[in-house]
Structure prediction request, 1187 residues.
Amino acid sequence: MTEDSMVTIEVDGQELKAKAGAMLIDVADEAGIDIPRFCYHNKLSVSANCRMCLIEVEKVPKPIPACATSVMDGMKVYTKSPMALAAQKGTMEFLLINHPLDCPVCDQGGECELQDVSLAYGSDVTRFVEKKRIVPKKYIGPLVETNFTRCIHCTRCVRFSAEIAGIREMGATGRGEYMKIGTYVERTIDSELSGNMIDICPVGSLTSKPFRYQGRAWELTQSDSVAPHDAVGSNIHIHVRDNRVMRVHPRANEAVNECWISDRDRFSYEGLYSEDRLTTPMVKDNGQWTETDWDTALQRVATGLKDAGTDIGALLSPNSTVEELYLAQKLVRSLGSDNIDFRLRQSDFRGGEPTLPWLGMAIDEVEAVDAALIIGANPRKDQPILGHRLRKAVLNGATINYLNPLRYDLNYRANQLLSAPANMVDDLAAIAKAAGASVVAGEVKPEHEAIAEQLKQAESAVVMLGNLAASHPDYTTLCATASELAKASGAKIAFVGEAANSTGARMVGAMPASGLNAQSMLAEPCKAYLLMNLEPDLDLWNPAQAQSAFDQAGFVVAITAYRSAALETAADVLLPMAGFAETSGTYVNGAGIWQSFSGAVTPMGEARPAWKILRVMGNLLDAEGFEQVSSQEVLEEAKAGAEGKQLDNSVTASPSQARMLSGSGLMRIGDVPIYATDAMVRRAPALQKTNDAITAAVRINPTEAAKAGLDDGDKADVIQDGNRVTLPVEIDPGVADGSVRVCAALAGSETLGGQFGEVTLEKA
Amino acid sequence: MANEVCFRNMDLDQPWTLEQYKSRGGYEVLTKILTEKITQDEVIEQVKESGLRGRGGAGFPAGLKWSFINRNSETNRYVVCNSDEGEPGTFKDRDILRYNPHQLIEGMIICGYAIDAAAGYNYIRGEFWEPYERFEAALEEARAAGFLGDNILGSGFNYDVHSHLGAGAYICGEESALLESIEGKKGQPRYKPPFPAHYGLYGGPTVINNTETLSSVPMVLKNGAEWFKDLGVENSAGTKLFAVSGAVKNPGVFEVPMGIPFAELLELAGGMQDGKKLKAVIPGGCSAPVIPADEMMQLNMDYDSIAKAGSMLGSGAVVVIDDSVCMVKLLERMSYFYHEESCGQCTPCREGTGWLYRVVSRIERGEGRPEDLDLLSSVGGNIAGRTICALGDAAVMPVNGMLKHFRDEFQYHIDNKKCLVDS
Prediction:
């Protein structure tokens, strides 16, 4: 920064250097000078409506708002002069006259900006003796509770929804005293970031519905942690009382999640206290489950695994920590098996995918791209904070294109190229060819050329593959073609892992070097399986095939935080593992950042951190190197093992290899909806009540529905690989021709086959 | 000397038609400017020179406002006419729209030319159905005659004027709320700076003038700045439309030279209604502090004289109050208005206007408390000067005026739980 762009101002006699044009309130904040405010928020546009930050500026006859006053050289500011204080106190009185005195029953009590500021600027007696305003509360969804009588009309929530969430869900109607905040005509708040409104609301007008009446801010202890659901690794605070997770709040980290978190990261903790939690080790004898002690259960496991010799398959969830994944692979390898995989939702294992795929850039760099092609992904719902960064890029002028079999409801302008699953490679190849890559492609249409041109023209372009692409039967071909496109257009290539620790899992070798992968170890059943942190019917690419493999296996042990019918069918021993917040650990996010956290509560019941379970299993199986006494020690060992492993997006697969997905029939699109991604989210009641928590259905566009003789509201049988389920039909014009959306990971779809593949429909 | 500017064609039978407007030299000024290629700077200079001040209430020099516009801005520039005439007591712009719409259109075109605007918008008060239709009809005539549209009179200047009907909110008469409203948003004032001259309609540099101001422009340019200045008095050039209402025999709109004694204006309005005695006058619309009769009868109707008396000329709405009026009741009605019309955006006005109204109201009901008059002053003091727009000030000024001049009436209400006027 040049000297020219800096100015010198004086605030309360203190000389401050500031960037020319900066807002006074920011400069004062930086210097630790406290100016009271309600409507101002540094992530939102300035509205200057609350009038709490009125201050005196020399030579200005009236007090002016610090939030809307830019600094000028030589400016003399008084934040506590008689004029400033009179204005601030006057505003404070106005804000309080219609504010209910219900602090004792208000959830915001104790962490209320109005309460705090009124302590300093308010009066202890009121001059207002009239009736106070009462505003009826509104239902705006299962996550955010409203009490608009407390509203001080700062419009932070309104600006948040328009500017950050990107949908104008909140607004102010009416004038004057009768101005009311609300959703437009009784609608619910459906943003995947809606919970942030709770944080930015300075009063108890918007509070957390799941946390309502549950506790007081001063009763809670706060632990730093990392969100366990997606590749962003949002930084969070876990608030605990009496060894129970009471709520989750964002922990500001500009480089990762700024001050926001997704609703999934905020409200999933409820799933921790599901009735399904497994709290004691359990063993199955002749189909009967009995609770037992750790010794008995672990002895059973040792015997079961020993009996299998080296024919063991390990399926490990990528939501597990580095420590858990590291010890799990170490254990299985020490037993002589290399059948280890975390790529539970992948089906294309022909090889040639990147060795250590990652985002290719820091998370905050995403908002600086000026063109993007997003293939097989919906970042808005898959990684909401990443979606937010992409939206910021668009607001900065970026052009974004999508290539997907589904048309997504986006919160920014983008061009969505709809392509049936079996055509995605063709469309991508055509774009690559248009960009000048030497790939075999069919007809290059103007829409392909337009995308190629945008990527080539952009200074900072990215070609991004996400969750849906990773589950695609031609994933490696998509990788290879995307890679050629990136090279030809000068774009970066980005891979977004589906889970919190997809990158970490590769770092610690939770995948086969030469053994069976997640697909082949189920196609050719092993004698024994180790399942960690997953539900076999909901977390695997082909649950029908998985069930058959587990049925045939001699022994299955599941280390799991939950019990479920499917787990009880598949497994012989269930070992209760610590869930989210109950263990220390580390995630490596999509940008390759290692983020460690400690446990916030002790595990429920007899549950133990999975790393400890694995360590004891190692001891019982006489494996070497299982003497760690802390997760830190495991982490250091894992890190040492990962040393030298570089994040690497280079692809060696051939773009012209044979197609796995072909055929003229109707193709299933088995994507995973936002609130079905893992066992904890699936058990979080509030999230499951949102509109995004869709249930299993046959979603099909009107043309295909007509062909199949189906109508909205009908029931249809879906038949895949001989498995049949009956589901309701929903007409959705956003589904590509030639395909039908039957989501994975939802109850009702778990007996079907692969996430992608041919299906037939019959009217039921 | 009356009816020289905006009302100069009132004697005609259908002054709102293009034909009759042209019969009095209508559009000649525009034609001269465009055909003789009088420069934009010259036009602005003449308007400045004439001393024409904004007729909407604030009295800001019109030419100066025009001169703020950066004609080289990357974004489009706009002319906006404020015909939202919502100030209680004001009904002068309505008559311009009804009887002399072409002069307003001519003024808007000249202003558009002077700042090289892309378009002009006339924001018309929601209840003004008839004036709206008159204005629309005039626009059609002007378009057909080639005064609006592409390449006006072969000059290469492209410009059109559109009217926008409001929806009944007083706040939309505030210039930046008016812009928001035209843009299709909720009518709430913008924080200033930036002022509309830099960031106005759709973000472009914008001139916003009152109907009367823009309608005066053709005559200013036709007869010259000196002529216009000479119509009025120092610092208050030209004529002014006064909307006289209340206890007079002939309420109505009168165009008279600035600086005319109030006593003469009262006579023009037929004097006081029979048997009624002048008690006080609100000289510039509801927001202007009241002035007692004796003082008012000595005052001249110009910006400085009224300001010196502690009030303001405002929009020229003269409300004549007779001695049968209870000032508490009157203030209650006015305070109710501001309470009802506050947009709700910023705290002091949203909360304070309702508080003022409730306190005045309880005094009126005979439930006043001894501390209420001080409370009114204090609450008013916490509103004034601390809001985003001037509505807060507007709500406070009548309260202060009443307490200054008629405090005893309020005190009587509080002490005796009844009205001084009734007894």
The mean pLDDT of chain A is 96. Residues 380 and 388 of chain A are 7 Å apart (CA to CA). The two ends of chain A are 69 Å apart (CA to CA). The longest helix of chain A spans residues 82-97.
